[in-house]
Amino acid sequence: MRRWIWLLGLLVVGIAGTVWWGSRNAVRLEPLDAQRFAQMSETEQVEWLIEQVLARSKRTDTITTLLEKLPFIRQSAVRPIAYWEIEAIGTACVEYDLPHWLSRCHRYAETESYREHLRVYRAILQARKGDWRAAEQTVQQIRTDPIKAFARAHLGRLYAEAGQSDAAQQSFDQATALLTRPSEPVYHFYQATALALMARYSSLPDRPEAVAQFIGSLPEDLRRVAFWEISNAYRRRGDAEPIRELIRIAPPSERRAMQEQLVRTLIEQGQVEAGLKELARVGKWEDYQIARIARALHRQGRTQDARTFADALRTRLLQHAAAKGHLPVRISDSIRVSTPYGEVEVVFKSSYNTIFLLTRAYTEWGLPERAERLIAAMTPENSLRQRLNLAYAHYTIGQQAQARQHLERARTEGQGVARRIALKHLTPVGTSIEIGCAAAFCGEPALALEAADAIPLSEQRDILGCMLRAYAIRRNAFWETLMGLP
After folding, report:
1. What is the pTM of this model?
2. Are 210 and 165 spatial neighbours (Cβ–Cβ below 8 Å)?
3. Helix, strand, coil % (nearest 5) of the chain?
4. Other C-beta atoms within 10 Å of 33: how many?
5. 378 DSSP assignment
6. Would you say 78 and 30 are in contact if contact means Cβ atoms under 8 Å apart?
C-alpha cells in the first residue's frame, strides 16, 4: 500500500512539475492597452507585440503536447503560428536584433518546415553581424528544399551587399539548383520569394543568355513567377532591351505582362514617345495594365495622357455601376482609347484591381474626389476595402491627417458592414482585421489595437502581425519591396 502511495505521490509531483515548467516558459497574455503601448520605447513595442502574438497562439513543444493529453487540462482554442506570423515576427526580429524571440517562437511553430522558416531569419541576423560561418551552419540545418532555396537567396543577397561576390554567386547557384526540384504547392511562397531575391540581387539578369536556360529549368508553376520577377528587375534598373528578349522567349500567355513591363520601362526612363509607340503597336491591353501605365506617364509629366487613360477606365466603370446599381468586382467589356499613335483596345478583366490602382493614382494626382466617386459606386463591403486603400494612398504621400480621417470613416462604415454580415449569420471579424491592418500600415497603432480589441482573442494576432510587419517596413524599406504593398 505504501508503495502505491509513493508512486501516486511521485506522479502528482511529476504532473505539478510539468505544469510549473510549462507556465514558467509561457508568455503572458495581456490586454491590448493602447495608452500603455504608447508609453513604451519602439523596441519595447515590437517585443510586446511578438509576446502577444505568441500569447494568442498554441504551443507545440513536447511538454505542452503531453499536458494536453491529461483529462483535466483544458484544450487550447487557438492555433500554432504559421508562415504569415513567422514572416512578421522574423522580419521584426531581424530589424530590431531580437534573436531570443526567434528561439521562443520554435515552441509555437506548427510544423518542422515552419521551424526551418524561423532559422532563415536567424541566419540573416548572423550574416548581418558578419558571422558568416554561423549563418552558413544555420542554413545547413534546413532540410526542406524550397525553404533552403529561400534561405540561400537571402544569404546571397547579404553576401552581395557585403561585396563578397564569389560567396554570393555560390549561394545563388545553390538556390538555383534547389528551385529546379519539384515540390508541393504549399511551399510556393518560399520559391517565389527566392526568385524575387535572385532577380534583384544575383548576377543572373546581367547574363541574358542564361535567363532562358534558367527559366526553362524551373518547374512549370514557377516559370510565370520567374518571367515576371526578372522582367521587373530589368524595369527597376531601366534596361529595356533584355525585356524584349524575354518577350521573344515567353509563351503567349506571358507575353502581355512582359510587354507591359517594356512600355513602363521606356516611359520611366524618359523615352515616353517610344513607350507610347510600343503601347499602340501591341494594340490590346487589360484594364489594370493601362492603370499602371497611366501612373508611369503621370510621373514623367505626361499629365494629359495619364488622365485620358485613367478617365476612360473610370467613365466605363461608372457606366456599369449606373446600369447595375453597383459596380461589380468583375465586368465583361472593352473600350477603345486614343493615343498619340493610334487607338488601343482595353479589355476589362479585374475592375476591383483597376479601382485599387485608380484610387492610388487619383490621390497621388491631387484628385481624390474622382476616387471617391468610384468607391461610392461599389457594394458596401468592397467600398470599405477601397476606403482603406484610399487611406493608405494618402499616408504614402505624407497626408497623415487625411489618412486618419479615412480610417475613422472606414471604421464607422465597417460597423454597418458588420451588422449586415451578422444578419447573414456570418462573422464580421474579417472587417475588423482589414481595418486594423490598414491602421497599422498607416502608422496608427492605437487605432489598430482598438480594432484588435473588438474581435475574439484567437483572431487578434492577425492585426498584431500586421503591426509587426509595419514596424519592419518602416525600419527597412527592403521588406516592403520584397513582401509587396500591404
Report:
1. 0.89
2. no
3. 75, 5, 20
4. 12
5. B
6. no
